[in-house]
Amino acid sequence: VGCDRSKNLVDICGEKNFQAFVCDALSVPIRSGSCDACISIAVIHHFSTAERRLATIRELVRLLRPGGTALIYVWAMEQEYKNQKSKYLKEKNGSKDTVEEISTGMAQGPLSDQMPDSSSQDSACSDRLLHDSKDEGCDAKPVADSRLPVHTNRTSFHSQDLLVPWHLKGGTKKKGESVDTVLFPAGSKESQELSPVFHRYYHVFCEGELEAACRSLDCVRVQKSYYDQGNWCVVLEKL
C-alpha cells in the first residue's frame, strides 16, 4: 500500500492498479502496529523544522509492528563523499542553452532533475514564499537575511535549508509539435510559458543527522546507516 501527498501521483498508481491513497506523512490513516515494513524515500527532507522531521519518523515507526523495519532515504549535504562525486553531480546537462523539461506527474527518489534559474523573477518567488510562511505563523526562526538560498542545479550544497527550482512541463506548444521536442533559450518568454518555475523547500541532511534523529526515539534500534549516491539512508527496527 502506497501513499503520497500528491493526488496526481496517487491517480497514476490507481491507473496501474496499485493500492495508494493521498495523505500527510505527519498523520497516516493506518492502524498502529499494522505494517511489517515501511519505506520513506525522499520525503522527510521536505519538512522545514527538526521537530517536524522527527515527527515524520515517529509516525513511520507508529505504523510498524514490533520487530518491523523501515527504510528511510533523505538527500545528503555531502554530494562528494570519500573522494567520490554523487551521481547527481556527475549528471550535468550538456547544454546551457536549453531547458530540461520535467513531467508534472513524475516523482523521484535520489533527486536528480532539479533545474536552476537565477532570474530576478525566481528571487522574488523565494522572497514571497518565505514571507508567506511567516504570515501563516510557521515556526521558522527570523534570520538576518530573510531569503532562503536558491540552489544551482548539479552543484554542491552551500546551505542545509534551501529552495530548488523546478521547471515543470506545461504551457503552450505549436500545432503538431510535441512538448518534448520544443526547446527555447533558458529565460526566454517562450521558455517561461512552456516551463513554469516552482520552488520546493529542502533540508539536506549532514552525516549522522538522520541516524541521530532515529536513535532519539526509545522504541527504535538502528540496524544500518549508510550513504548511497548523495543520500543518507537508515534501516531501523521497531522494538
From TrEMBL:
A GO term (biological process) for this protein?
tRNA methylation
Q: Which residues cross the membrane?
A: none
Q: Which GO terms describe its molecular function?
A: S-adenosylmethionine-dependent methyltransferase activity; tRNA (5-carboxymethyluridine(34)-5-O)-methyltransferase activity; tRNA binding
Q: Has UniProt tagged this entry with the keyword Electron transport?
A: no
The GO cellular component terms are: cytoplasm; nucleus
Q: Which domain of life is it from?
A: Eukaryota
Q: Which CDD domains match?
A: AdoMet_MTases (cd02440)
Cross-referenced Pfam families? Methyltransf_11 (PF08241)
Q: Which residues form the Methyltransferase type domain?
A: 1-72
This chain's protein is named: ALKB8 protein
Give the species: Alca torda (Razorbill)
